[in-house]
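Recall from the previous lesson that a structure prediction takes nothing but the amino acid sequence as input. Here we apply that procedure to MET7A protein from Pomatorhinus ruficollis. The sequence below is the only information supplied.
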Amino acid sequence: EAGASVLLLRACLALLASPIYLLSFLGIWEPFCKKVFFPFILEQIGAAHDKKSKKHKQELFSNLPDFKGPSGVLRLLEIGTGSGSNFQFYPPGCKVTCTDINPNFQEGLAKNMKKNQHLQYEEFLVAAGEDLGQVPSGSVDVVVCTLVLCSVHSVSSTLREALRVLRPGGAFYFLEHVAAEHSSWKYFWQQVCYPTWKLVFAGCCLTRELWKNLEEAKFSELKIQHISLAMPWMPIEPHIVGYGVK
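The prediction returns the following tokens.
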């Protein structure tokens, strides 16, 4: 349970971020965050994160072609595509369906599509991970989800939807930041930053133990690796990476 020092430091942080809390109270922050701030800041942080995670992603996605469907084509759906920083890792000829709850990433997305013309882009759906109703059951070979499960409303519903749209034998790929070891300083700071971070970064939760959700989901096999990506001054160092097979 958060101790007194956590609560005190949380209050200090809230004081520093008080203009944002005020704007949120007035109903101004959320729409501004969604349209302007979050896409902008995500591009900045994303660039740094992409550098740090590049070799992990190359390794993670190296076996994507193994999951091609009977037709020899890989049908891939990405949950929370954002501006499309994963496109570079997908194999040539892959058919990509992009989904994101926030339609305001178009600029970065168009840029990354132009850069990655080895892919076939099927459609862009504005949809939450928990509700992919527009996607037929069993219609994709692979679902990709990176740095998204931290901010969905329900992790278990999102994983259920991912499993629903996957064909039997298809795979769910993930790379996510997670809660640190409870006895560590990192976890202490995650707890301190939690409320303000969640407000500033569009609902991103710092202390989710996502490996537990993945273990509870109904995958026939699951490969999870705990890794550390040093992000200076940011409480998102511990990550998990891997894939589960339906």
